[in-house]
Design a protein that fits this description.
alpha/beta; 2 domains; nine-stranded mixed beta sheet; about 15% strand; elongated; membrane; cell membrane; cleavage on pair of basic residues
Length: about 350
């Protein structure tokens, strides 16, 4: 029924703090490949993935009761994030950069008419992507560094209630970290004004990337008091953010946090030049056929049996027309003969 899935990571580790009846996580130290994290998010929402996930940590669960929202927060530059609540944890092997673009595309293609809320945001890089009703819900959300700085010094910002400890309001690195916490607070606050969106049929997706803690570690060092205070503040803020999103979606939300010290390779996206029109021989030197899509078998069977059915229908109709007696089987001839006799 109602649930919140909150994933915390100690170093390169995935931890489940809350698990509902509809999503089953088994207790065990099974490692999860870093590139399959988006597949875990997709499967927990009830979507299919291209390649099977032979990971025993995620069970089947309730297929008819899927979450209304998935929230994934990526925290960079931390080896251990001590969250207020502890749950099932899994180590992450080969921590490589990932994105939830595939999950966002699945939601957008299946629920395009219902305009779900899709928000992907990286405050430190000023990168934002909004789809559907997110444009109206988060139109007042600060996304640029200038907007975030101005937001922090407003009367209702987190600076008025957050204990800074060793952090400073006059340091740009500290302000970047605090601005990311402000984004978490504002997302939950703005969504609370549109609670009806959390009760509709379409699932929502939130993907956030936080790099402020990593910058504090580079500026002060990981053994500094600033880094320790920032880690504690971030853990408490993430827990509070998870509870707020859990309540806004009436417990039917998945909240994930992935924290890694450093990714093994940078995130790259494949691009294609507009001048590239043909495939060179070096790209395919052995003249091999292209790989089939995973939907090929389904499409092939649909077309095959439809053609067989149409061919059988044509044969049956042709056979009956060929052996039809016009004077006995056709009503046209019978009506014509009766009219001739009457005349």
């Amino acid at each position: 029924q109602l649930f919140c899935l909150f994933l915390g990571v100690w170093g390169d580790e995935l931890s489940v703090l809350r698990s509902p009846q509809s999503v089953v996580f088994r207790d065990g130290g099974w490692p999860l490949p870093g590139e399959r994290i988006p597949d875990v998010a997709a499967l927990s929402m009830g979507f299919s993935v291209e390649d099977d996930l032979p990971w025993p940590g995620l069970g089947v669960g309730d297929l008819f009761n899927r979450p209304r929202a998935t929230v994934l927060v990526t925290v960079k530059g931390v080896e251990k994030l001590t969250l207020p609540e502890k749950g099932i944890s899994y180590p992450i092997e080969n921590a490589v950069p990932f994105s939830l673009d595939s999950v966002a595309n699945a939601i957008h293609s299946l629920f395009s008419e219902e305009t779900p809320v899709i928000l992907q945001l990286a405050p430190s890089e000023e990168r934002v992507y909004m789809v559907g009703k997110a444009n109206s819900v988060f139109e007042d959300l600060s996304v640029t560094l200038r907007q975030l700085r101005n937001r922090l010094f407003q009367n209702n910002s987190i600076l008025s209630s957050l204990p800074l400890n060793s952090l400073s309001r006059n340091n740009e690195v500290d302000l970047l970290f605090l601005s990311e916490l402000q984004v978490l607070h504002d997302i939950a606050s703005l969504l609370s004004r549109h609670k009806h969106l959390a009760k509709d049929r379409s699932p929502d997706l939130y993907s956030l990337e936080l790099a402020g803690l990593e910058e504090i570690g580079k500026r002060y060092g990981e053994d500094s008091q600033q880094f320790k205070d920032a880690s504690q503040i971030l853990a408490e803020s993430l827990q509070k953010f998870a509870d707020e999103m859990y309540n806004l979606y009436s417990g039917n939300a998945v909240v994930e946090v992935v924290a890694v010290k450093a990714f093994n390779s940078p995130l790259t996206r494949k691009t294609r030049s507009i001048l590239q029109s043909t495939e060179s021989e070096k790209d395919n030197p052995y003249n091999l056929a292209h790989e089939y899509d995973y939907d090929y078998a389904v499409i092939f069977n649909i077309i095959l049996w439809m053609m067989i059915g149409l061919a059988l229908a044509v044969i049956v109709v042709s056979y009956n027309l060929w052996n039809m007696d016009p004077g006995y089987d056709s009503i046209i001839y019978r009506m014509t003969n009766q009219k001739i006799r009457m005349d």
